[in-house]
Automatic annotation (TrEMBL):
Entry's transmembrane regions: 89-117
Residue span, Immunoglobulin V-set domain: 1-83
Protein name: Inducible T-cell costimulator
Topology class, membrane: Single-pass type I membrane protein
GO BP annotations listed: cell-cell adhesion; T cell costimulation; T cell tolerance induction
Cited Pfam families: V-set_2
Source species taxonomy: Eukaryota, Metazoa, Chordata, Craniata, Vertebrata
UniProt key word Cell membrane: yes
Cellular component, GO annotation: plasma membrane
Alphabetical UniProt keywords: Cell membrane, Disulfide bond, Glycoprotein, Immunoglobulin domain, Membrane, Signal, Transmembrane, Transmembrane helix
Gene3D superfamilies reported in the protein's UniProt record: Immunoglobulins
Compartments, record wording: Cell membrane
């Protein structure tokens, strides 16, 4: 069993059974891992990138008993999405997160200082008034004089 890639049918990896022994081969650098269990064979593709988008074909070759047979078992078009979260995006996300954290800390400090100042002002105002008095403190008012009126 072979896994072929593209219209040129380049072999990526294969699985051969010779005299009951399983021989696994992989031509790509860690891209394909063939597996065999009982009567089934699997090709596991890993670490794929957008450049690996192509048509993949499972091909079965039978050499013994004669005559030689060659079957294309399955053909699948595999589309690999580009990852948008590469190392350059992660660094920008970290810079943005640091800026938001810095802004949040500045806002927190400003709110804390404003709250402390408000509490100090409220304490000064509350000390100047008498709570036992029945009268409210009032400001002095200038009377408006009418012409010809004496005080």
């Amino acid at each position: 069993m072979r896994l072929l890639r593209g219209p040129e049918k380049g072999e990526i990896c294969s699985l051969r059974i010779v005299d009951g022994k399983v021989i696994l081969t992989s031509n790509s650098s860690g891209l394909c891992q063939p597996e065999h269990s009982g009567n089934s064979a699997s090709f596991i593709l890993s670490d794929l990138e957008s450049k690996h988008t192509d048509t993949y074909t499972c091909n079965l070759r039978i050499f013994s008993p004669a005559p030689y047979k060659d079957y294309n078992v399955n053909e699948t078009y595999l589309y690999v999405h580009e990852t948008t979260c590469g190392p350059e995006y992660i660094s920008w996300m970290l810079i943005g997160l640091a800026a938001v954290s810095f802004f949040s800390c500045i806002c927190f400090i400003c709110c804390t200082v404003a709250s402390c100042l408000r509490n100090k002002t409220d304490k000064c105002v509350s000390n100047s008034t008498e709570y036992n008095s029945e009268y409210m403190p009032m400001a002095a008012v200038n009377m408006v004089r009418k012409p010809g009126q004496k005080l």
